[in-house]
Amino acid sequence: MKITKIRFTLVFFLAALVSCASSQEHGGAGSTMFSFTKYTQVIPAFEGRSIPDAQMDISLTLIAAREAKLSKFICLLLYDGMSAKQYAEHIFSDYKKEFREYADDVGEEQVRSWSYEEEHAVKVCGSYAVVSKNFFVYTGGAHGGYGTTYYVINMNTTERLTLNDIIDKAGFAKLKPFVDRELRLYSQEVTGEPLPPGLPLWEGIYLEADFELDDFYPTESGLAFWWNVYELTPYAAGPVNVTVSWNELDGILNTKGSELAKAFRK
Predict the structure, then answer these.
(1) What residue numbers bound the domain in which 151 lies?
(2) What's the pLDDT score for residue 48?
(3) What are 156-200's pLDDT values in tens digits?
(4) Residue 192 domain-assigned (yes or no)
(5) Are 155 and 125 in contact (CB under 8 A)?
(6) How many structural domains is the chain composed of?
(7) What is the DSSP string of 21-89?
(8) Are both 181 and 127 inside the same structural domain?
(9) Reduced to 3 states, what is the DSSP secondary structure of residue 208?
(10) CATH code of 213's domain
């Protein structure tokens, strides 16, 4: 049988380098910095036996940096120090073992297909790169699991920027009300019901009234904040993505944050 997958929406084009519009028009300033390689493997549930649809499909589209120092940093950040090829082989090996153990446990009559997809994308603006790591996994049940992680990278210093790097403590206090407002607007967008400031967030689509600011990435219009399924919402509501504009972030960002804004802001 074919598995109907719940597809995640990617913010960037998958398996392709996307540079800022201004540099794109001149051939793409970041077009030689990264490359993508696709790795695939099909693992049958039982070696040497033909069991219809009993297999695991794995598809990986992985990023690699061409410059040596940045390449080493990307490998540490995304692949636990392995190369992209070694990382792919590691995933193939782990899932082969896990899928075969599952198949042997449930037997030929009950075994069902699994799948795993991981796709990386990148956006380059000036000396900054935003890498997205997206995955979808199905190992049985009503639906699969999926998620995205964003890595904001200063390519000159080979460091991953966190919110603590671009916003100080006082800035966080000013930022949270803007995010709260956007979360309320997003909840109303999904449900059609207004969620006024007086009501806690869990009166809308969210699981709780409080939220953590962690996964973020810069866009042309502002800082986007991302929560995967179950971090802030139930599965049916999907992931959450809201943006606070650069204009509202003026006076909130520190020096590093202002440099980041300058690179992305339009």
Answers:
(1) 17-161
(2) 80
(3) 999 999 999 999 989 999 999 999 999 999 999 999 988 998 899
(4) yes
(5) no
(6) 2
(7) HHHHTTT-TTTTTEEEEEEEEEEESSTT---TT-EEEEEEEEEEESSHHHHHHHHHHHHTT--HHHHHH
(8) no
(9) coil
(10) 3.90.640.20
